[in-house]
Amino acid sequence: MASSIETGGAWSTIEDVSLCEAWLRVCHCPVTGNEMKFFHMWKKIHAEFCEKIPDSPRTEMALSSRWKLLNKEMAKWRDALAKAMNLYRSGKNRTNELIQAQMWFGATGGGKKRFTHHECWEVVKYCKRFIIIPTGPNVVLNETPLRDSTTSDSPLDSPMSEDSPIQKEPRPIGRKAAKAKKAGNSSNFNSKFLEEIARQNSIRIEMEQKRQDMEVAIQAECAREKEYLRKKDMQKTDQVTMAMDTSHMFPETKQYWKLERRDVMRRKLFQDDGSNNTDLLNDQNH
């Protein structure tokens, strides 16, 4: 049996998620997903996995062994969520449902105390194998309902106990009520799915806005850099113009450089003190 070092060491979250994505893409292919043999299936999954993580040392056997473990834990998590959803009441915090699911997951035994592969679950939770269809009445463990410890159905804890001295035991849930509850849970599942789509769209819009803001900032920085280089080049040209020796030149050439120097002086005076100095320069030239 190969050691963990020989097969690539401990599995990272990225590797687990990539394995789940590869499994989902190959096994749920509408063309070949239901007709592939086991050998060809893991050969294609390994190819998909290597596309996501190039140069990975994981072999087809390593992927198959890891998937067997992930599949088992995510199936337990699916069942734990289904049981927790049967205890869910309209208006309660969804966080309580996840706490109950973790309690069910740990209570089933045979492995970890808590479910930790939430990133993998997000990949596969909508495929047929792992989809949650909660049914049935409230489920209890060791005759104790898995509800939030801060709430209680005891008549002594009820705010109506002072006005209602006689408290009746709740009737068992009937068949019609169970069907109505199942329909309500399906509605909750659809709402959760739509909320997830809206959340993903919000994240995408936010990322697109950040990208646009970054592009605007880069364009502004490029414009500032171009302006700086332009002014630097003009300053160098002005220095050459002002230092030009015209003593040996023809009168026409001297006049050209005289006009160039006047333009340089006009720009310089305008930058320093505004238009008043340029008017003074014009008066002196006249």
Q: How would you describe this protein?
A:
The protein is mainly alpha-helical and 286 residues long. Among the domains are: 13-144, no CATH class; 244-286, no CATH class. Helices cover 63% and strands 1% of the residues. The protein has helices at 13-27, 38-52, 60-87, 94-107, 118-124, 175-242, 251-273, 275-285; strands at residues 140-141, 144-145. A two-stranded antiparallel sheet has the order 1-2. A hairpin with a 2-residue loop joins strand 1 (140-141) and strand 2. Helix 2 packs across helix 3 (60-87). The longest helix has 68 residues, at 175-242. The chain is elongated and about 110 Å long. The protein starts with 12 loop residues before the first helix and ends with a helix. Residues 1-6 and 143-169 have low confidence and may be disordered.
